[in-house]
Amino acid sequence: MKLLAIDSSGLVASVALMEDDILVGEYTIHNKKTHSQTLLPMIADMLKMSGIDKNDLDAIAVAAGPGSFTGLRIGAATAKGLAQGLGIPIVPVSSLEGLAYNLQGLSDPVCPIMDARRGQVYSGIYDVSTPLPKALYEDGARPIEEVIEQVKTLGKPVTFVGDGVPVFKDRLTEALGSVDNDGLVAFGNDAVRYQRASSIAILGKLYLSDGREVAAREFVPRYLRATQAERELKNK
């Protein structure tokens, strides 16, 4: 079974390729180019380097959201176009679950936070100590203060990852204290902080075996909140 994974939900563009239980390759770029410029060339390069023809792919796993509206649309269009042309299914994976899975096996909960602007984050809290993450708080778009209250309710150390960390690190540490000083907050290092398509690939493989795939024409990103254009239209 050969599975391509795509994550363009945040600042980085990341693609990965799995064959059975082997991660054949992963290609991640974090620079100023847009995902529309990088995603397809990255996929083509990775397939070429791995010696796998796109026609041999069995499924495409994609970070389905939440995240950047533009990034999600680019990832969705890429996945849908490839899957439709190849006649293979898409396996949607929560962007936040994928971020949390970067720390799979950690005994403490993981809280991915993606900067949603206007003082909000896309966030969830996951138990990643088992092969399949368990959501302790469901994905949502919420003020950072609500995330702080969730951590206080859990009452145990939580490791934060995601592009919201640089934005809210000081606020989280001030409110919850660092684990180094018997507080509740730890932060994943740069190697696990941002999106990795390898996590989407592994989760996609697990979900595919559980029958959670959809036809390409049926897949839509999961935004969790209205776009700016929709908000402006509503306010008129």
Structure description:
Helix content is 38%, strand content 28%. By secondary structure, the chain is of the alpha/beta class. Helix 2 links the parallel strand 4 and strand 5 (90-94). Helix 1 packs across helix 2, helix 3 crosses helix 7 and helix 4 (144-154) crosses helix 5 (165-176). It is globular, with a radius of gyration of 18 Å. The termini are far apart. The model is unreliable at 228-234 (pLDDT under 50).
Features of the shown structure:
5-stranded mixed sheet; globular; 8 helices; 10 strands; 28% strand
Which helices and strands occur, and which strands form pairs?
Elements: E1 2-7, E2 13-19, E3 22-29, H1 35-50, E4 59-65, H2 69-86, E5 90-94, H3 95-101, E6 110-117, E7 120-127, E8 134-143, H4 144-154, E9 158-161, H5 165-176, E10 185-187, H6 190-193, H7 197-209, H8 228-235
Parallel strand pairs: 1-4, 4-5, 6-9, 9-10
Antiparallel strand pairs: 1-2, 2-3, 6-7, 7-8
Helix pairs in contact: 1-2, 3-7, 4-5
Structure described in brief:
The protein has 236 residues and is of the alpha/beta class.
What is the residue-mean pLDDT, rounded to a whole number? Answer: 94
- Main beta-sheet strand count, sense and barrel state: 5 strands, mixed
**What is the tally of beta strands?**
10
Strand content: 25-35%
Helix proportion? 25-40%
Basic shape: globular
